[in-house]
Amino acid sequence: MIRFFILLFLATSLFGARVETFRWSNGETYLSFLEKNKLPLGPLYYNLDEDEQQLSEEILSGVHCKSTREKNGDISQVFIPLNDELQIHIYKNNSDYFFETIPIISETKTEAFTLKIEHSPYLDIIRETGSKKLAKIFVSSFQNSLNFKNDLQKGDTLAMVYEQKYRLGKPFSMPTLKAAMIEMKGKRHFVYLNSDERFYNQDGNEVESFLLGTPVHNARISSRFTKRRFHPVLKKYRAHQGVDYAAGRGTPILAAGNGRVVFIGQTRGYGKLIKIQHSDGYLTLYAHQNSFRKGMKNGSVVKKGQVIGYVGSTGLSTGPHLHFGLYKDGRAIDPLRVVQVATKKLAGKERNAFLKLKANYDESINLHVSNATKFTRVSMPDNVCYFFNGEQCVQDKQGSDS
Description:
alpha+beta; Nuclear Transport Factor 2, Chain: A; 10-stranded antiparallel sheet; 5-stranded antiparallel sheet; 38% strand; disordered C terminus
């Protein structure tokens, strides 16, 4: 199928298909997208299996998608990212449309830069890099431990080391901060992303205040999180962007943190569904509910631990359970890696491993500060590999898709 897709993409490009880039609109559903573009609902949704239907309901607003259209305006292909590893691919073969999930071909680079404070870390990072994403992850990593407003002075230094994924030669998905430093009144303050995906300061104490708690008491985990796996029997890529908690029908579901309801309603795959937007870019998803708590509606403000609904098996579900999804800045993350109530302090072997990681990042940051490393703006390379066939690049340049 991948080989056919590559040939199809080459053919449409060579014979004048129009390539478009668009962002998934806030409030847009997969079904409404199909209807708006006059795409057949049967083969592209209703005839799909349960996992594929549920995945189509996890498309997040704001993601960058690509499509190609024929000369008559009909869509021939669509690429819709589900996370930073997997995407929905809709394509036309003769007069029939098909659906599949395929990996996103991307490259991850470790990058770094330093700068002198002129106004504020947020404004200065945007001025230097043009990236609100980089400014946001830097400021949020320190916001629970430092007061930038009162303690920063003009001329203080900051440094960032981060990972950025690239797709089709352009930055893709949210960058991942690995280590950061800011100088305030002559003293350097650091944060480091540890192997447990949580931030710690130079003393090994957690600095990010995680807002989440377990959403169902005394429940059994029946399915765990995975961004991408290849099913050896079905020969399809699968993803489970959350954790399933098996519990009796009617068991209360608790809001994982303070926030605001941004979606409440009935869907085909996830049944009765609630999405809650939290601070710091977190969003949580609660699916297959039997019923919602009375008074819950779009825009409702909720508190951590408040009952929002009750466990059920609505939608495509084989038994009563809660599907709980967690997203940070539009990226699906494993709730079991971060859902903790108590602030964590490293000790023993964990602390020793952290200190080794810290020493490596300290060396890197000191070197970048000494060299006054500047941010390097990305320019499109002369040759871009869009698709791979095994280890070989199938095509070097796709003119209209650059």
